[in-house]
Amino acid sequence: MILKEVAVTRSLPLLACRILTPLVFVNGATPAPTFHKDVEPILQNRCQGCHRPGEAAPMTLLNYKEVRPWAKAIRGAVLTGKMPPWQADPRYGHFSNDLSLAKGEKETIISWIDGGAPEGNPAEAPKPRTWTDGWRIPKPDVVFEMPEEFAVPANGVLNYQYIPVPTHFTEDKWVETVEVRPSDHSVVHHAIVVTDNGNGLRGQEYLAGYAPGMAPQFWKPGQARLIKAGSYLVFQMHYTTNGKPAHDRTRIGMIFSKKSPTQQIVAMQAAAHWLQIPPGEANYRLDASTTMHENVELVGMRVHMHLRGKSMVFRAVYPNGESEILLDVPKFDFNWQPYYYLETPKPLPRGTRVDVTAMYDNSVNNPFNPNPAATVFWGPQSWDEMMIGWFDVAVNVGSTIGRAINKSPFEQ
Q1: How confident is the model at residue 406 (pLDDT cuts 50, 70, 90)?
Q2: What is the pTM of this model?
Q3: Residue 219: which of 181, 255, 252 has the closest Cα?
C-alpha cells in the first residue's frame, strides 16, 4: 500500500492540515477500483432499478453502506452470471434494456471486492440517480388502479380475476410509456392490462403487463400504443398464495405522447395451445408461428412458459427463404421474464414468418417440476404449462394489422 498525500482545508481560522490517505495498488502497479469512482456507476446502470426501496429486489444498493455487507454475495452472483439477470444469448440481437455487464465491468466488480471493497473518495461518486417515488417511469400523466384491494388468503388456489376500470377518455389517447405496478409483489404471479372498446375479443388490445423481471414499457419517439375513446381497462390478475394473508391493489401509470405518433405499437404472439408434455420427458419440443400480413418493424420480444420451461428461440423466416435468429434464451427463468427491446427495430417484410421454438423438462431432473409423473396440458396455474412467444411490432398509424391478431391478449 502507498500513502498518497492529500491537502484538506478546514473551516477553522488559519487552520490547514495535510493528511495521508491510502491509495491501494493491485500487483504493485494499477490502482485498485474503489466504490465511488468505479463500482457505483455500474450499480446505477445495472442494478438500482430493482435494488431500491419499493422494488422487487430483496435489498437496496444505493450507497456504500448498503452495498458493502453484500460484497461476498455480489461476487458470487456476478461470477455465476445470476446477476445482473439477463438471459439472452449475446450472439443474437442487441437490446436497449440489456442489463448484462459490459466488457470490463465484471472484472472491475470482482477486483474491487477482492481488493477489500474500499469506499474511496466520496467526491468521486457519480450524481445519484433520481427516481419518481413509487414508479420506475417519470411522473405519470394518469394513473388507474383497481377499485379496491383484493384480499389474498394465506393458502389455496385462486382463479384469475378480471377487473374492469373505466378510463372516461373522451378522445383517443396515445401512450408512449406505461408501467403496471402491484402493491404487493409477493402474491402477484402476473398482471395483464388490456383495453376494451366494447367489441368483444376483437375489441381488446394488449396494453401492458407485469411479471417478475418485466421493466416498464418505453417506446422510441414517434411510437405509441392506442387507447380508444370510451375504452375500459381490464386488469387480469393472477394471484398466488404464499402462506400469509395479503392485500393487493395493482395500478397502471401512463405517459401520453406529446406529438401525434407515426407508428402504432401492436402486440402479437406465437402460441402452442395444443401442448401435451408426457411424464418424465426431459426434452419436449414445441413450435408455433405467426405470419406478418403487411410490412412491420419488430421492436421487442418476451418469453412466457411456466416451471417446466427450459429455453425459447425466436426466428424470422423471410419471404425469400432466408432465416435469422432474433432472440435465443437458452436458460429460461420463470422468476425473471423481461421484455427484450431491440436497440434497432427489425424490418419484417410482408410474408415474413416468426417461428418460436420452446423446450420443456418434465423430468425428475428439473428441481422446479411440480410433478414429473403428470401429463401436462395448457392451463393458467404454474403447475400447468404455457408456450407463448410474445412480440411487439410497430406499424404505420392506421394499419389494419391489429385485425390479424387471432389470439386473446389474456392468454398468459
Answers
A1: very low
A2: 0.85
A3: 255
